[in-house]
Design brief:
mainly alpha, 11 helices, about 70% helix
């Protein structure tokens, strides 16, 4: 059951990230993050008092606050990266960094995994990287005096000697550096939230979201920026915040009874849904390597669950 919850959280994380990245193309990132985080906070604040009584300790709440700071910074960087870069690159890059920190911490704390689960985690990391592989065509030039435009390099009727040479050039994509920093911060979120005890219930998550709202509210006021956004953008930010909160809840519940390494790895498969949504709604194309990466991620899930 915890592994199914982790998979469900991955799907919702990916959907929330797609919505957040898309909305950040139309409005200021800080405003989008604050609205989305606030919507999740309100919903959780209404739900937590209705749940069975729990006894969170000060330590649990401190881990929740740490998770909130790390998560809010990570989400802000991720939304910015998704807004300026290709989602099929930014999301997987973030996920690779996010999974390394908690898995390394779990290993340092003595957690032991089966060979099948280790193979699945390794394949998941490779799959995430593959999903993020993209190459762009670059026109290097044609024959002297050629007037053939780049878009007609392969057009019928243009002499071969006048066609510009097209090469697939691999380069550092836009948003890559931001994605690395985002992944480190999100990894801190995963690790911090998992350190809270099950006896604390959802209170660490409420504290995490509250600290996130306070942080970005202060940043917005300090910079003198407005929360004004188009109505459609506000609605999308609210929706993304709700999905993100549900994903966080599923992840937290999964950590109560599952292996941290496996739970984090499964939750970090969220780029698959981000990439697929970008393909459907933004017409971002998947190349052969990316398709293989998605298939590899599915196989990794089977290995991890089977080995767990």
């Amino acid at each position: 059951m915890p592994y199914l919850l982790a998979l469900a959280s991955a799907f919702l994380y990916g959907a929330a990230d797609f919505i957040g990245g898309f909305t950040s193309k139309r409005a200021e990132t800080i405003a989008v993050v604050l609205v989305s985080q606030f919507s999740g906070f309100i919903i959780l604040a209404l739900i937590v008092p209705l749940l069975p009584a729990v006894a969170p300790t000060g330590r649990d709440l401190l881990w929740g606050a740490a998770a909130g700071i790390c998560g809010s910074v990570g989400v802000a960087l991720l939304y910015r990266g998704l807004a300026i870069g290709t989602m099929a690159i930014v999301a997987p890059t973030t996920a690779v960094c996010a999974v390394i920190l908690p898995v390394a911490a779990a290993a340092a704390m003595g957690e032991r995994l089966s060979t099948l689960a280790v193979a699945g985690i390794g394949l998941a990391l490779v799959a995430i990287v593959m999903v993020g592989q993209e190459s762009r065509p670059e026109v290097l030039g044609g024959a002297p005096g050629s007037t053939a435009p780049a878009g007609l390099a392969d057009a019928e009727g243009v002499p071969a000697e006048e066609r510009p040479r097209i090469m697939r050039q691999r380069r550092i994509p836009a948003g890559f550096g931001i994605a690395l920093l985002s992944g480190i911060a999100i990894g801190g979120f995963f690790l911090s939230l998992a350190r809270a005890s099950a006896d604390a219930g959802l209170w660490p998550l409420l504290v995490a979201r509250g600290s996130s709202v306070a942080l970005f509210g202060a940043i917005l006021m300090a910079r003198g920026h407005s929360l004004r956004m188009p109505v459609s953008a506000t609605a999308m930010a609210l929706t993304g915040g709700v999905l993100d909160m549900v994903a966080n809840t599923l992840y937290l519940v999964a950590t109560w009874s599952g292996s941290l390494s496996i739970i984090v790895t499964l939750a970090s498969l969220y780029p698959a849904s981000t990439v697929l949504l970008a393909r459907v709604f933004l017409r971002e194309r998947l190349n052969g390597v990316q398709v293989a990466g998605v298939i590899g991620a599915l196989v990794a899930v089977l290995l991890i669950v089977g080995g767990g």
